[in-house]
Amino acid sequence: MSTKPDRPADNQVAQSGLADVVACESAICLVDGEEGKLLYRGYDAPELAAKSNFEEVAYLLWYGRLPGQVESDAFLAGFTGSTALPTRTVMIMRMFPRAATSMEVLRTAVSSLGHWDPDSGNTNLDACLRKAQRLTERIPLLATSHQRLRGGKEPINPIPGESIAYNFLYTLHGKDPDPTSVRTLDAALILHADHELNASTFAARVTAATMSDMYSSVTSALGALKGPLHGGANEEVMKMLMAIDDPSKAEAWVLKMLENKQKVPGFGHRVYRTEDPRATVLRQYAEELSDREGERKWFDISCEVERVVRENTKVYPNVDFYSGICYHLMGIPIELYTPIFACSRVVGWTAHILEQWANNRLIRPRAQYTGPKERKYVPIGERAS
Ligand SMILES: CC(C)(COP(=O)(O)OP(=O)(O)OC[C@H]1O[C@@H](n2cnc3c(N)ncnc32)[C@H](O)[C@@H]1OP(=O)(O)O)[C@@H](O)C(=O)NCCC(=O)NCCS
Questions:
Q1: Residue 229 in contact with ligand 1 by CB distance below 6 A
Q2: Which of 269, 276, 328, 352 is labelled catalytic?
Q3: Is the separation of the CB atoms in 167 and 316 below 8 Å?
C-alpha cells in the first residue's frame, strides 16, 4: 500500500516563487550561486566561451560530452542540412500585424515549424535530436527574417557551412559580418545556452513531462522567456542606458529608481549571491567592442550604473546587463535582444526536454489552499446582493 500522503501536510507552506525548491535531478548544468560558477556538463562556461564555439556547446549539452573530430564533422553537416525556413512559415510571418513584437512572432512562428517538420510525430531519440538541431538552426532565421520583413526587406538565406553566429548577423544585415562581432555573438550564445531550472526551462520541462511534443515544449519556454523578469531584461537595460544617455546622469537616475523601489534591469538573480560569471565575460567583450568601435558612451554609462547599484544595494549585475551593449555595437536592434537569448537557450531547453523524457514523470505540484473552507451554495434569487 502507498505511504504517500494524498494532500500536502498541514504544516507545509508554499515557497514563494519556488525559491530554492529542488524540482528535479539534472546532469546538464550546475549553477553555483555562492561561488559564482556556471558549469555545462562539468565544463566551465566562461572557459567554453573563450575556447569553444556555440555548435560544439550544443553537442555537449545534448550528448553529454564533447565530440571527436569525426562526430563534430557529421554533427555540423546536420546543421547545414536544416538551414532554410519552410516557405509556409515565412508566409505566416508576412501576415503578422506590424505591431507584433519579435518575441510574439517568434513564439507563433516556432509553433508553426512543427507542422512542417518531417520528424514531427516521431518520438525516438534520433528524431528528437534532429528536431533540436533544426530548432537551433531556424530560430535565429525566424528572428532575422521577421526583422527584415517588418523593415520592408526580403529574408536572406543563410550561407551553408557558416556558424549560427555568423549567419545571424549575415541574414540580419545582408553582408558579411566582421570576425570580432561573430566571435562576440558566438561567446554570448555560449553563455546563454543553459542555466539549470530557470523559468523558461522549467516551463519546457513541465510541458515535456505531459509527453507533449518538442515544438509545444519549446513554445511554452518562449512564452516564459518573453517576460521582463526573465529574457526581456536585456532589452530593458539598453532602453535604460539610452534614457540615461550620459554617464554623468547615471547616478541620479539609479538613485531615483531605488528610491521609488524600482528594480534596476540587469541586476539581481534568484541564485547568484555574487557576480554572475556570464556578466564578467560579457563586460570584457562590451569594453573591447566599445574601444574597437570608438564608442565608449554606453559602456561608461553602464559602469556608472553598476557602481551606484553596487554601492546602494546587495545585488550584482546579471547576464543581461552587458549583453545589450555588445548587441547594440554590432548594429542589432533592441527588439532582437530577447530573441537572441532564445537562439541560444533553445539548446538548453531541448537538452532538458530530452533529459525529462529519458526518465519521465508528470510534473504536478500542489498548492497551499488559502481560499474559504466549504461554503453552502445559495440560489441566485436568495443572495444578499
Ligand atoms: C532577477 C529577479 C527577478 C530575481 O528576483 P527574486 O529572486 O525574486 O529577488 P527579489 O525580487 O526578492 O529581490 C531580493 C532583494 O534584492 C533587491 N533587488 C533584486 N533585484 C534588484 C534590482 N534589479 N535592482 C534593485 N534591487 C533589486 C530587492 O529589492 C530585494 O531587496 P529587499 O530584500 O531589501 O526587499 C530580480 O532581481 C529582478 O527583477 N531583476 C531585474 C530584472 C532582471 O535583470 N532579470 C534578469 C535576470 S537574469
A1: yes
A2: 269
A3: no
Chain center to CA of 196: 11
HSE of 212, CA atoms in CB hemisphere, 13 A: 19
Helix (H) / strand (E) element for 30: namely strand 29-32
CB 340 within 8 A of CB 168: yes
pLDDT at 2: 43
C-alpha cell at 295: 564608442
The string of pLDDT tens digits covering residues 34-85 is 999 999 999 999 999 999 999 999 999 999 999 999 999 999 988 875 568 8
Active site residue 320: yes
Instruction: Provide the 8-state DSSP code for 8.
Output: -
Instruction: Report how far apart the first and last C-alpha atoms of the chain are (Å, whole number).
Output: 50
Whole-angstrom distance, CA of residue 103 vs CA of residue 170: 20
Question: From CA 64, how far away is CA 240, in angstroms rounded?
Answer: 39
117, 192, 320, 328: the active-site residue:
320
3-state secondary structure of 176: coil
Residue range 193-244, pLDDT digits in tens: 999 999 999 999 999 999 999 999 999 999 999 998 888 889 999 999 999 9
Dihedrals phi, psi of 30, to nearest 5 degrees: -110, 125
For the entire predicted model, the pTM comes to: 0.93
